[in-house]
TrEMBL record:
<protein>
    <submittedName>
        <fullName>Amino acid dehydrogenase</fullName>
    </submittedName>
</protein>
<keyword id="KW-0560">Oxidoreductase</keyword>
<dbReference type="InterPro" id="IPR006076">
    <property type="entry name" value="FAD-dep_OxRdtase"/>
</dbReference>
<dbReference type="GO" id="GO:0008718">
    <property type="term" value="F:D-amino-acid dehydrogenase activity"/>
</dbReference>
<feature type="domain" description="FAD dependent oxidoreductase">
    <location>
        <begin position="4"/>
        <end position="398"/>
    </location>
</feature>
<dbReference type="GO" id="GO:0055130">
    <property type="term" value="P:D-alanine catabolic process"/>
</dbReference>
<dbReference type="GO" id="GO:0005886">
    <property type="term" value="C:plasma membrane"/>
</dbReference>
<dbReference type="InterPro" id="IPR036188">
    <property type="entry name" value="FAD/NAD-bd_sf"/>
</dbReference>
<dbReference type="GO" id="GO:0005737">
    <property type="term" value="C:cytoplasm"/>
</dbReference>
<dbReference type="Pfam" id="PF01266">
    <property type="entry name" value="DAO"/>
</dbReference>
<comment type="similarity">
    <text>Belongs to the DadA oxidoreductase family.</text>
</comment>
Amino acid sequence: MKQLVVIGGGVVGVTTAWALVEAGHRVTLVERDVELATGASRANGGQLSYRYVSPLADAGVPLKAIRWLLDPGGPLRFKPDGTTAQWRWLASFLAHCRGPVNRRTTERLLELGAFSQQCFGDLLRQTSLDTIELRSPGKLVVYRKPDEFGRVASRTLVGGPERALTREECLALEPALGDGGAEWLAGGIFTAGEAVADCHALSVQLGERLAAHPNFQGRLTAHATGFVREGDRVVALRTDQGELGADGIVLAAGLQSAGLAELVGLRLPLYPLKGYSLSAPINGVHRPPTVSVTDFERKTLYARIGDQLRVAAMVDLVGDDTRIDPKRLAALQRNVRETFPKAADYDRAVPWAGLRPATPSGAPMLGETPLRGLWLNVGHGALGFTFSFGSARIVADLVSGKPSPIALDGLQLRAA
């Protein structure tokens, strides 16, 4: 049994702390905010997309990015933030925008997604989480361009988990797509079994279960400020509330992990991908989509979570800026009202913006660092909710001296 510290109280940090106490370790959780899951876990898309994991870095993205940047309402916005870190990240991102690289990353992420789905099932059996609005309606990715849909459909395997659907089949599966006129719809790819849930509610409820666990040593509301080293080993965490000695420390603090790692000479290639969401109430007069829908061209996700429609969209590379841009919000409102005009009360929608910690490859960084006693569970990008359960189990196994349950090439610091 080890004495461990987990830094970060979002869904990744909470699931990591849970996996570690279940593995028999004593764990203290450090979170700077009073409440859990106030950052990227607060109002994200809520989709558990175990099989739709293709990273942003792909062969066609640079050319698409030019077109997106010319469109004020497009899914991508870039603004230089005056840092070398932004340009270094972009250069590495472009280096990953090659078909063979993307395919290798996608294969590894598919394996992580499948393992995470298994771990989520295990967690539900252990904890009986009952207020997380979990549904498994399947996921429909819709396409606006016939040639793009044709390319994707041609790669869909007969008898595999994904089915290519014509425009008419998409409308039969999800009639709400026709409420705004579906002339734009070229077709879609449907994957049964994909789920949606409330990430914030899950994080808070699992935090309550964690607090009652006999191996949990408590939660410290504090800012992590550095580490205490003895040679090549990290032996304690410094906080503004004092030091915490530990046999091991897990960095699971999203973007803040990069600054903390830099204090001990480690460079984590993380950059914030700013995303927006709307949470719009649903009542008896509305017709929200039943399945989880992703608009591929507009990079917009639609998911019913309880009595709300969650709409998540956009990738802004604008640095560490969580402010809600009125122009971006207005563009999202226009797209939503055009695509699903009858789905929810958009006049009462609650907007949100959050920073998703992403690596250039799109793959998270898990496991050990060159410093003994310091471990990583960071860089999940827009798939933190999806991957959190599997990555937590992997890190818990590694900290416990066990081999990883899946191959880690492409999922470690040295491969980022």
